[in-house]
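User: two proteins, same treatment. go.

Assistant:
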Amino acid sequence: MVDPAQLHVRVLGESRIDSPLGALLPAHGTTEHYVDETDRVLLDDTLAMIAARAGAEVPSFEPGGARRRIFFDPSKIKVGIVTCGGICPGLNDVIRGLVLTLNNQYGVSRIIGFRNGYQGMVARHGRGIVELTPTSVEYINEHGGTILGTSRGNQDPDEIVDCLEQLGVNVLFVIGGDGSMRGAQKIAAAVAGRERRIAVVGVPKTIDNDIPFIGQSFGFQTAYAKAAESIRAAHVEAAAQPNGIGLVQLMGRHSGFIASYASLANNDADYVLIPEVPFSLEGFLPYLRHRVLTRGHALVVVAEGAGQDYLEDAPVRLDASGNRKLGDFGVYLRDRILGDFASAGQEVNLKYIDPSYAIRSVPANPYDSVYCLRLAQAAVHAAMAGRTEMVVGQWRGRFVHVPIPLAVSSRNQVDPDGDLWMSVLEATGQPGNFAAATRLIA
């Protein structure tokens, strides 16, 4: 249960400056363009929730969008942009959207980009900065990755604030995942501790779609569309071989959204294995052999975080951010399948495909390009109005402001009892419990 207080966004101070956007709009459209400051977007819009909260404040988000009055004077501020963590489709689109909205709509002319993530904000790493202008970002949306580069790992928030102060940065936009947002939260806290007025606004990036309360993360639709192409290729390979099996491992450390959506996109998969739904290989493997025996081929899609309990004996390794590195379950599953077929004396031709890095590096598709631009616009409007320690997202069809503490408080995951997973079960025909399926085969 989310308390209404958790949805309140921190503001640096009173907005007293008339927004320059009014001069850019036709007279008949000015009123409609600005957000009504008394408006809210309901967290839960069901009648049951409203009835349960009778007489009490209903949990709701602050809406995103342009304000009539802004906190920062556009002619006097300097803006910084940083991209952190792994790459995904749409990073350059967000950078471009931020620069164009700042410059073309608000008249902000001093915009810099920090190279290689938070490392670029700590002097000893020597990463440097780059000036960002409408001209320098003109075509970057046509390319994957990020022109600013990225990195993983924690940096000292006080050193980062030292950098912001030395450079005279008034607004920092952080484009990154949950770890990067926790870093942004620490930066905002360090800023507040010094009683400085620097806005820290995040555009959440997670190819796994696992950040809560933001609707859907940018790049996700591009990712599962490209993943669906790999699934189709694996299906063609499997169908062409006697007793063929296509095994595709997709992104999804803790959340199986890409595996689920990509499998539904072309409906070729026979089995989908995700971290949220426990399974027994002792139950699954006989079922897979039965599928190949009766229909000639099979296609298995697995999210990278699935089946980690089978790899518990592997040595613990941490990445630069301190997160545990996952074992390679796709390779483990490949070997278990081959061994199981060999033990049963059954022929098998298995093709294993892991397209993860190829998917991460592609440019955004048109849907994600539009979404990235609109997220960037919402982020700029929020920052110019003095909002801080927040991320932008989309909730119930509207752009909203989500406090960073709430955005990093939990993880968005596929609900094993929800309609998405039910759709996967219906599309594949796989059982909800492979142990029970084994009994049926026997």
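Protein 2:
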Amino acid sequence: MTFIPGLQLSRLFYAEAVRPLLDRHFPGLPHAAARIGSGSEVLGFDTARSADHEWGPRLQVFVADPAPEIGELLSRELPKEFRGYPTHFVPADNEHIRKMAPTDGPVFHRVDIARLTDWMTGALGFDPTAGIGARDWLATPTQRLAEVTGGAVFHDDTGELTAVRSALSWYPDEIWRYVLACGWQRIGQEEAFVGRAGEVGDELGSAVVAARLARELMRLCLLMARVYPPYSKWLGSAFASLPGIEPIRLALTGALAATEWRVRERFLGEAYEMVAARHNELRLTEPLDPRTRPYFSRPFRVIGAGRFVAALHATGSLAGAVDQFVDSTDVLGRSENTRGIVDVVHGA
């Protein structure tokens, strides 16, 4: 069977299977239909491998009153298969993770019927229709923002879903400048350690630091391009899709492939200078010298990331947004955790 990308499959499923049932049984029902939220297809990175769990003919339908009759109707009348894919889902590893499976009975479908404000609050930890404050931006992992603003909207009677996605499409300028400054801050904290660890013979430690710095540079490039960085599985794919990024990608690849710290440092220096040039192209600050320089009196080449932090005029805590200083999936996956942590770090 020829693989159909998930967003295309969901769009067809809505148009050919879900929408006709809604029109027949609930004529004139105002609603929005979309495929957003978790799932590799929402970010455009799904492949045939993705079909083994949480993938298939699925979408969200947002209504003012998510009456159970709507879901029950779909369970009874949806086709049991669509374009060769089952519309029935069974537990995979646990009740919260499901996969497609044939059925002879009613369909346990993945057409999620919900009120928009309820769904958004569950996905983000706050209701964006009521306004978005600094705490909301900083406490929401970029993966979640990418999930809510990615994917596609297939239908929107009231325009409310479209308006919410527009409001969340990118940070306000002051938040954007702040997270950029915090990205540079993270680089400045470790940029000399590649050489220092290598100098004492710790090539493994030097390589680990280089990998951490490469990750920060990749996230920084995405932020500069106004793209929410996804979580680790898709970070490289999102980074590689940026326009004109290939020279930086090659430099970072060289740094991570190097087995000797001086070579590693040289490749990182090339990447630093190209990312610094991208910063200047944004014109958020006065142009800064994009060349690397010695780390004070020590013989290690760095970009001097603190210069960029200062130029962006960041004030207060430079910890950043929650996923700039928290790396635990168990923490980032629960909005009550991320909002509580941001309150502690930034002050309630």
